[in-house]
Amino acid sequence: MQQSHQMGYAEYERKLENRIAVEKRRQREYQQSKELVADIGNHIRT
């Protein structure tokens, strides 16, 4: 938590806006990784 989001778990728990920001970032990174895997898969098949 500290390295990837520049805040500790206690700070994450304390403020709702911190939690929302972290979860939005996680969702964005997850979508980017899914797209990357799909692109790599498409390149391997062709």
Give a structural overview:
- It is built from 3 helices and no strands.
- With 46 residues, it is mostly helical.
- It has one domain (2-45).
- It is elongated and about 50 Å long.
- The mean pLDDT is 91.
- Pfam families: YuzK (PF26149).
- InterPro entries: YuzK.
Task: Provide a brief overview of the structure.
InterPro entries: YuzK (IPR058676). The chain has 46 residues and is mainly alpha-helical.
Low-pLDDT parts are none
Main beta-sheet strand count, sense and barrel state: none
* Count of folded domains: 1
Helical region count?
3
Task: Report the portion of residues in β strands.
Answer: under 5%
Secondary-structure element order, as H and E? HHH
Write the layout of secondary structure elements.
Blueprint: H1 2-5, H2 9-14, H3 16-45
What are the defining features of this structure?
46 residues; mainly alpha; 3 helices
